[in-house]
User: Fold these one by one.
Assistant:
Number 1:
Amino acid sequence: MATTRILYPSAQLVYDAALRWRDECLIGDGSLFSSSVRLGLVDGEGLVRDFVENPDLGSGDFLSKLRGQIGGAGATEVQLAAELLYVHLLVAWSDSISGSRKRQIINTVLSFSPGTSAIPDDLAGRLDAGLVRPGQAFNSYRWKQFNLLIEFYVAVKRLDQPARGRLFDDPAAFIALLDSLPEQGADIQRNSLQHLLFPDVFPAMVSRDHRELVLAHWPQLSGPHDRPEALRLAAMCAALEPNQSWDGQAFTNLYRSPYWWQWLQPSGGWTLFLNWGEWFLDRVDLDQEERDYKLHTAALLADLRAAVDDGRDWVTMLREAFKDTNVVSWRAFDPFLSWAQEHSDDAAAALQALWHDAGSASIDRFSRLVPAEAADGLGGRLSIASFLLGAIDVTRFPTWRSRVVDKAYQLTNFAKTQPTSSDGEHYDRFLEFLDLLVDTSDARFRGQIRDRLDAQGLMWTLIQVEPDSAWTPAQVEALQAWRSGKGTGPIVGPVTTPVDTPKVHDDPLADDEPRTLSDLAGELYLDPTFLDDTVQLLHDKRQIVFYGPPGTGKTFVARKLAAWIAGSPDRVTLVQFHPSYAYEDFIEGLRPQEGTAGFHLVQGPLIQLAARAAADPAHDYVLIVDEINRGNIARVFGELYFLLEYRNEAMRLLYSEAPFRLPHNLLLIGTMNSADRSIALLDSALRRRFYFRHFDATDEPVSEVLPRYLADRHPDLAWLGDVVARANQRLDDPAVAIGPSFFIRDDLDEAWIARIWSAAILPTLEDHFYGQPDRVRAFELDALRGEVGIAHDDPTPAD
């Protein structure tokens, strides 16, 4: 029987939580978070009264408004609100809202009333998973989604318990009840409930537009038009052939080949990717450059597999296969080879697990049998495992490489897998991408992309290969601009002969400088949208200020972003203001002559960098003014008040009396510590000339930096993100919130966390709570760890 349930292991975390909610909270009268709490109709009606019928139409975010609406309610009503928000957030992928942010929202609501029960560890961890990208309205109109969820809960609770049980055995009755609720612009929540509560019937598709498109494409499969949309969609999915499998089980995924391109046109990012694909296919012989040598290596791997099965000396053959390829870094395969040689029986068992019922799921079996010292990290494990799958069929199982795959996903806005995803899930997502390329072959590539191996070769070429001298400068510039995320298409020109494209021997695990803004966002653990908006603002006014409390990464981000904008750190200059800093230090001034009487004119860093920028109009130059508010800005800036606003006009300077103008390609980034001096104290003339970007440790994207960093670099210390979030929630003051920068260090461990907390965090809080030692004690590390359920002798959280 076909199912619409996503069969990935990470998805089961979500389905299990939804099943528990259905059985214990909807059919039963229990609490999702506590077996000793009873919740029911009276609590739901309280939320209708206090939230649904008492909307807050003023300014403020969802949580601050919710606090005003239900902050005075009893513990059980607040408990129900938090648990319903848990269900609301459960469905969303981490690139829409991270697990840490989900937990922060729920914990904030739980803090509205004493006596509430915290999220159990096993349920808290499931928030790192997700099923869909729910769209912008999911975050922007959370109150509408929450309204519908409350109304749904109350409608179910008004049934007697046997009727509730029957409701969740009858998809048609369930849809009838759901459709009887007021139309509130909450389609995302309505459609999420359908899949969460009936995952084998209704697809994981929450977008109204997407549902309309698929029904319009397969009208003959969906039944009579007078039936409810959800039931028509379910009938259509049941009639389609399953197109995805996991560990021998099949399911129907409308967002995967061959269905996706049948009902949805490629987006702008995909279209550009395909356009560049056509461009390169006219100029590159993929068989010669990308296919033939991989087939040769696959033949070696097939011999290796036979040797493992026969018990022959296969380790030497494994070494030769790795040496024959350039698609796996030696830094990844050297430890694996050493382990295989020392533990050949264990290694053979891992290889046989990989090759038995070969596929994405078998990669997980392989990864469980290979120790960290043999293949550490996703990049190492998956590049080795996918390479070795070539022994089965390299045209079905091409090699995965993180940097190239991530870049392709970024350029096409293809959703990545979740933090909870297994190695096999990451690989299966890669195969989805390749299948979409294969699907376009007849229409766009004239059949040149025959299988996944060709698709992989094209992806490699698009991301890695550099043009040769036959390309015009404009064509080279267009390619570089597209690869950096600027949305540039290929330029038709005189290139008529194939480009000589040597195989790329770069290291897939190398730490290259980021070339796209998304790369930079990943390096900084920031939301790419935040950086993109920042760049747009900076290019608009040509100057911006990053402000916020200490430890939020203002200067670090400014330096990294400036180097990306300028294209080189050599075109970036940093100065730091302080109370003694003057006009003469920053712009120009007279200084004593050495060895003789008199003075000479010395140019400051602003004039020097402006001269370089004016002489090099093809590049941007960036001046960073760190701690901009610690100097007497009006005195230091002088004529800059005029020049920053009127870049086309010149003004005579104080000492040289030479006409001077600021070149358009000179950008200025200031940083200011709002704990030292409020932004409100800056004069209005300066504020009018700058955009201001708030680095708030309690709000996204800065609040997500530490959890993302820990998940990537120190996953065993992930509990620290919850501890910091709880501390900031207790502080309830962005001006003194704990920022991520205190803990961004390669050698972070439990000992360093304790040192930083006692020597940096607590002294600041002691100053903030001067004369209130009891309040400070609540912020001690052990106390906070206890609050988030992490024992001191067991630093690894259950989630």
Number 2:
Amino acid sequence: MTMQHEPPFRDPSAPLADRIDDLVRRLTLEEKVGLLHQYQAPVDRLGVAAFRTGTEVLHGLAWLGPATVFPQAIGLASTWDLDLVRRVGVAASDEVLAFHHKDPAGAGLNVWAPVVNPLRDPRWGRNEEGYSEDPWLTGVMAAAYARGLRGSAPEILKTAPTLKHFLAYNNETDRCMTSSNMPPRVLREYELPAFRPPIEQGAAVAVMPSYNLVNGRPAHLSPLINSVLRAWAPDDLLIVSDAYAPGNLTSLQAYHDTLPEAYAHAVKAGLDSFTQDDDRSAATLGHLREALETGLLAEEDVDAAVRHVLSIRLRLGEFDQGTPYDDITDNVVNCPEHQALAREAARRSFVLLKNDGLLPLADVTRIAVIGQLGDTLLEDWYSGTLPYAVTARAGLAERCETIFCEAVDRVTLTADAGPVIADPAGGPLQIKAAEAGMFDLFDWGGGAYALRSVTTGRFVSVDGGTLVNDQPGPNGWEVRETFRMEERPRGTLALRHISTGCYVGAGEDGVLRLIDDADQAVWLAMEVLRSGTDQASRLAADADVAVVVVGDHPLVNGRETEDRMTLALASAQDAVVAAVRKANPRTVMVITSGYPLTWTDDEVPAVLWSAHGGQEYGHALAEVLFGDADPEGRLTQTWYRSEQELPDLLDYDIIASDATYQYFRGTPLHPFGHGLSYTTFDYADLRVRTADGVLTAEVTVTNTGDRPGVEVVQFYTHQQRSRVKQPLRRLRGFDKARLAPGESRTVTLEIPVSELAFWDVTRDRFVVESAPHQLMVGRSATDLRLSTRFEVEGETIPPQSGLLRAAGHDEYDAITFVDETRVDGDAVWSDVEGAWILFRQVDLTGVTACVVTAGSAEGGMITIRRGDPLYGQALATFPVPRTDRYDYHAITSSLAAADGVHDLYVVFENDSVTLVQLDFGAGA
């Protein structure tokens, strides 16, 4: 009798690399290709099951049915509590496992979270998905959440967290076709640091590239995937594409002519899994086979990708007899422990923006709860399905008597032929001679309105081009329930459907349908039957306190595919706040939004903000309002006074544009790190020292109030002298101090001095300069209570000489970063006459000539000037011949005598020149 031995890839005691080697050797090339799609084909002869990447779990399990819904990611980050964020990740992964054990195909263990794009611009439609505008804070928050998702077992992954979205992705506007200008310092000091901690710590084991291009090259083809991300990872790193992004390489981006060519490039660049055509893998696999057959791909390229895929599956325990997580059942889904955690997370996420002493509430028996968000909880696109909803009204009603109104206008709409009537069964809207139908009008801001039929309680939507009233509210990937109102003569208006851009017209039967022709839109007269503002004022006047709950709708006010143009609170909601405050000075404005907002009434005595807070929002709100808990949240973004203070949405150069709290020179509405407490704190005895390459700072924090409180102690540094422009302030660490009245605590910061480095473009590496620095500590980026100076011994950056890469310049005007080749390298391009790049401190001692590597679609001219781009001495001129896009010429020109060290401007004299490098060494 012979015993059957399991193959080595099924031996959990064998080294992981050996197990991968064994399984790869057993697979045919066809079987290996089948593993490169999101829906990986089974290999029945080896007992390898089908596998799918991509379960959404941004702030709880999403899209698969009711599961615990935690606050949005931006809300979790506002807790400034890494352990809490980790525990939320643990709970979310529990629920993923519970669904997976019931339906392995429906709930895969490769989870797509967290989002680590730094929140450079609050107008980004996906702002609520990220953590912070600070890359370091983003990175440590992401690492905490990913650590909870991956589980605590050292060798076995609970789930496989995937970071989204690499790289430089903060706009939805034309997101598949725009290229993010990424100077080397912004790349190395701002964008990449957000990805590093979760990868380097092994918390995240996969990465998803973004839809956009970076410096002219699609992010899915970035050489940084292999050269940087995989260099950080302690183990294999899986790279999965975003949905339908591979197809963009030949369509929207037109970067390659054929899909086999594009897909081959993607695999070589590091992509392991194609998320294309949903579960229909045939076309993608066919293109990969063709790439192999034509020599665009080699089998070893496929093997490299397959190793990354199988590494994750092996580490998930797929081929073991069991894992530490096999006993997780659906009893964990929305269990009492997860409900309590959702409540804790929501409570700790609230940020008290302003308080004139009204909060915490006391001696209150009757509260007026007012506003469009007062008695509803809203799900965002990546939210789970709420198992229950504790609204603001419900949470406060458990404390005292509440009276409520949504504070929306009730209106009729009438055309010349008669009023608009809603079908009682939820069917088509129609114009006919009858008693006018009534609608409640919701203003979500940015010109987006929704109408709810009073008759049916359902919202007006569009079905097959016909207006119906059958939806519970704005919802779905294509939101069909929002309209713009365009003025027409005699005080009438036309409705324009936002999703389609079509107008609302009326057929001969009176049924309202979408039409393309604006001139054929039906003119409607709107009559306000009941003013929401007036109703709110009357209600507020009859209460001890008014709580006005305002904010955004996550599917309307910017979301995936749609950015915002304004930060202003919807005008109707803004008017309600002002009217309520006038009717009752004891008014609390509660903002619920996934991004910073502005409003007009500066006299509101108390303002409280949170992101959309999940199922326990109302309970958490009540606990904070009534002072059961100190408001612990702090802002992780700058709240600007207006979008006018922001650079262009597509300007990714935070250094040149003075963007984010690091470089912003204005006075914000609320600064990064801001958040008030119900008590007061004093800072004393700031001490700092450097020894053995470590910076250590200590400060004593005391609760000087009469109630317990939580202080988020924030440490910032500023380099006071440098070769380059330095941040005005940069977060280096924080700690949460929970202090009883009168209690003091010493808070300590320890960071390696190497963390004070910046990217030196002259030598393509990080450098710590010898320079004085300032250490600052306080309550926010601008409320800094103490500071002290310290010296750092480092390097002095020498003058530049020899070969200068064009992308490594110091400053620029009117240039664009582009790809040097399709595979690697950056260059600069401009079609603006007089555009320039600046190289500071170039040593021209003994240099008599320069060789420029450049190309031009039309033929062009480059001039090197000393000291000034317009009037500086012209040292050399280079005629650039007409070339194809990636065909460059080395052009030599004599250099005017200019011994010594100079600032050199390279000026683009006319259209369409691409510059790769300048070589001053050849003529020395």
Number 3:
Amino acid sequence: MEILNENLKQIKIPTSSDNIYSEECVFSYDTPESDDGLYISLTSFLSFGRDYVERYYQKTKNAVFLHIKRTKTEIIQADSEEGPEKKITRLAIGLEGGLQDNSTKKYNYDDTYQIVVFPSQTKYPFPNENLPAIVLESVNAIITSDSAFKKLEKEQLSGTWDGEMRQISACALDLQQLETGKKIPPTGWKCEKCDLTNNLWLNLTDGSIMCGRRFFDGTGGNDHAVHHYQATKYPLAVKLGTITADGKADVYSYAEDDMVIDPYLQQHLMHFGINIFQMEKTEKSMVEMELEYNQHFGEWAVLQESSGNLLPIAGPGLTGMTNLGNSCYLNSVMQVMFRVPDFVERYVKKADEIFNASPSDPVNDFNVQMAKLGHGLWSGKYSSIGESSLDTGATGIKPTMFKNLIGKNHPDFSTKQQQDAQEFLLHLFTVIERNSHGQSNPTDSFKFQIEDRVECLSSNKVKYSYRDEYLLPLPIPLESATNLDDVRKYEEEKIAAEREGRKMPDDSLIRPKLSLKSCLEKFAEPENVEQFYSTALNDKTTASKRARLSTMPDYLILHLKKFTLREDWTSVKLDVSVDCPDELDISFLRGTGLLPNEEELPEMKNRPPSPQMDAEVLLSLQDMGFPLDACKKAVFFTKNTGLENATNWIMQHITDDDFSSPFVPPGHENVQKEFIPDEEGLAMILSMGFTMKQATKALKATNNNTERAVDYIFSHKDEIDMEDEENPASSSTAPNTKQYRDGNGKYRLKAFISHMGTSSQVGHYVCHILKDDQWIIFNDSKVQISQRPPKDLGYLYLYERIKK
């Protein structure tokens, strides 16, 4: 015990406020189940695999560790002991009630413990009554306490689940119920506006029975329930046929635009003579309908290549990632990002350098967790083929620390809800830039410059401006589909089948088919800008605006804008087939800059007066939930002509990339407002030893975000003391291309990410990656050789420049 007693002063007893990382090494994906187990420091409560524990000791001199080795043994069950097959009830993968990746095998887990003291690696068995009391208390607290991961998960689940838990409706408490005299029979329902007898919704205010929405593919109803709400504003409706005796049903709130819980459903139904205890479920819920659709012939089967007997594959760069509860968007994005050489160079090849330079808290060091993730994906150490390709315990890594860190304090990515992969990608790039600290920034591979050209149609004079982008958003012009007649015929047949109670064959689905070139051409199309303030006229007029690329990045990310809105403002995803070629030439999108035969619009001499806004219309639009700046644009560009026109403008422009960006009235583009730094943020940054000039510039660059401002100072050391340029490139007629990589406009498809489901907030993501001239499908922990990569159904595409 002598060696142990010499280090007793280091040992701490964890309290409820301490985080215990007992599930995973902070530098690798070693766990207690790894061959060498896991070492937990009795000082910091951080865990380390065998490859890193001695390094940690050498750096910190924290010498005492609890070593955990976990073994699992399969539980052999007789056929009679196996329970019934679990029914799929949720639009998720890897979550309770959703599609499951794991096998049906069950295991027993046994843990063995030892106390290990470095550097001699002297070992003491545990339990052991002869151990010092402080060691016993420390170890027992570690074993019995929730790990840091479990504590965080409980916080995330407090009051919510994973995006599919329905919230109690705010409309239910004081819901108005009219005395219409209606008594709803237990069966025999029919839409009051058409002949549909299914997908019917009972409005809980007036007792009307109307059919539901028509879906994009022609299924569903004829939108009569929606139209009824628009006419009456009666907010709640329950889907007939989904009501059960235990008080459950599909309840939709039109006012809140979501499926909700009505805690007073029993009395609301009783108002119309419906005894909930006598009801039986006779119709599929909304989730069940979508699951059945997707499982039979929708994107789920196609994108996961469910019909093929795919062969699993393993090795470096072929490591799967566990779905941490709707984290498939993160898994797909990170798999694709680590195919880019700059990411591999920065985080994989320099992993040891990053680990050795890490601060005392590697759990919260972004570069450490990126290096850990990259090394985990590319080392091959955690990639193996188990007895079953569905056995998630046999292969892959569990990116818990990375997910917790990248989502920290973010309103969306810190939750267990499904998120949009495109939005996460941009968030990732922002965090990488913030943590580059003068090091090479791997996102430079994607950075390019957009050239915006505006032409005053009255004077034919032009203005060029430039902005940064990291991906190219492409509209989907449905009018350019090559099979429009077939699509219309299919939709008509679906509607007829629905009315007649028939079911269309599973293989009859017809999607609109478009070419990627038509999407690129739509992006390049000029658009008219109303009320453009022309400095040539000193008055408002109409202008033409179009965008080009002034630089071509090493890696081009294409974002197909599939998520849009129906006319009733509900989200929908366009189920389209876009032919994305293996090789792509976008040279025709190259910007030209000011041409010899073009004349620039003159500099502004007199700033026009600020526009007057109809305050009542602005308020009404905001009450509908639209951003203030979008509301201002709607009122301005419809020339204060009323709520209806402003609303129509919003519906036409709601998918624009700059929809909610700050509204700058025409003629005010170059007017600089005086920046006032946040007083508390300024004081805090000054107390850290930075100058007034540095603090003010950083706060200005980060919109007075103190935390980001500090990061900005460290990551912009070279220019933080430079004088601000009077004429930045963003408003110049000449592009500043020195900071961008540039080359030819010919690219080859490297990877694509696909989404399954009707909304970015539900469903599932997978990615296909071309590795060694072979397409591989990464479906969370499953890594398999692709047989028919569905290149036409992707959402995000990664193209690599073809080197001449």
